[in-house]
Amino acid sequence: MRFATFELRGRQSYGVVRDDGVVDLGRRLGARLPTLKALVAAGWPQEALAAAQGPVDCQEADISYLPPIPDPAHIWCLALNYVEHHDEVQGAGRVQELPKQPAVFMRWADSFTGHRHPLRHPGVSEQFDYEGELAVVIGRPGRHVSESDAMAHVAGYTILNDGSVRDWQFHTRQITPGKNFHHSGSIGPWLVRREDIGDVYDLTIKTTLNGQVVQNGKTADMVHKIERFIAYVSTITPLVPGDVLATGTPSGVGFSRKPPLWMKVGDVCEISIDGIGTLSNRVEAAD
Length: 287
Fold this sequence. Notes:
Blueprint (H helix, E strand, L loop, with lengths): L1 E7 L2 E8 L2 E4 H5 L6 H6 L4 H6 L12 E3 L8 E5 L3 H9 L11 E4 L5 E2 L5 E2 L7 E2 L2 E7 L15 E8 L2 E2 H4 L15 E9 L10 E6 L2 E7 L7 H11 L7 E3 L21 E6 L3 E8 L3
Parallel strand pairs: 5-16, 7-13, 8-18
Antiparallel strand pairs: 1-2, 1-4, 1-13, 2-3, 5-6, 9-12, 10-11, 10-16, 11-13, 14-15, 14-17, 17-18
């Protein structure tokens, strides 16, 4: 099932996107489960899964997608988590050892936008780069989670574009500025339950820019697997339902190419992951 958060006729809601339309679970279950975050925190209750099988309330064209979890408490991101991406970073002059520990950084919720909404070109820089990633959404809270128990804390998966403003990212050793321009990244279109994905380490991540394939990687190539990522960050602070963990990008990013390939106003960036779908955004001028 594909669970999305959206705006419909002037109100925010959530529901299931099916081939024949959208079931508005916010309208049906709102008194008990008002948001998708509340739904994942409740552990996908049978009441919601049964309601998702009911008649549709609108067509997919009627909704405006928001990030599946619009208000996560934490957005953890991994850098250099694919071997070939690490190697291309070295080739671009950013020589680093392969991370012995997860190389984490944070993003703010308002640095992301939803499916089919514009990525905002930073304006102050031309070095606007794409990064297609698998994102994990936490469903069960936990602290000091062991790797063996980590997957039990995963509610599901979505797609993330870790849009990066490279020169601002490399102003200093702290990469936070280049990772948090307003609406420079995107996430969505929806959340797919963990149970609905077979082997999470057998998924293809493909990014296209204006129809040209620029990234084509496999989740099997992660340096630090999802279990290690969850164990690591849950040692720092408690994980809570709705937290987003971005697992890193495969090779093919724009700044490592010769010449570099930057996203420009008018470009369309699409990221597809097996079993989840396609996240699509057009680049527009800074707001």
